[in-house]
Design brief:
The chain has 98 residues and is α+β, with helices and mostly antiparallel strands. Helix content is 17%, strand content 12%. The chain contains two helices and three strands; from the N terminus they run E-H-E-E-H. Strands 2-1-3 form a three-stranded antiparallel sheet, with no helix packed on it. The N and C termini lie far apart (67 Å).
């Protein structure tokens, strides 16, 4: 059974140029675009269109980094790393202070 993935608004893709790719495909390597904006393969300016082996790599999000809200959550989590416990457990009775 195939797992369904909902389509996200900012789904992205990039072109992975083959070893013998044209200059146009090489210039688009490592450039992430929205899926709707990625040009069709083979590219219009490809001089090797008949033998083009370039492919797409898809991403759920075109951004390379975490969204800021997740980055802030990770920073807050790192600030709470376990260290020396400085709290002292004391009861409320007078006998606890003797």
């Amino acid at each position: 059974m195939v797992e369904y993935k909902p389509v996200t608004k900012y789904r992205g893709a990039e072109i992975i140029a083959a070893e013998d790719a044209c200059d146009a495909a090489r210039s688009l390597t490592s450039l992430r675009l929205l899926s709707l904006e990625v040009p069709l393969l083979p590219l219009e300016t490809c001089d090797r269109a008949a033998t083009c082996k370039c492919v797409y790599r898809h991403f759920d999000d075109r951004r390379r980094k975490f969204p800021r809200r997740e980055e802030h959550a990770l920073n807050a989590l790192m600030a709470c790393t376990p260290g020396v416990e400085r709290r002292v457990r004391r009861g409320r009775r007078e006998s606890d202070y003797e």
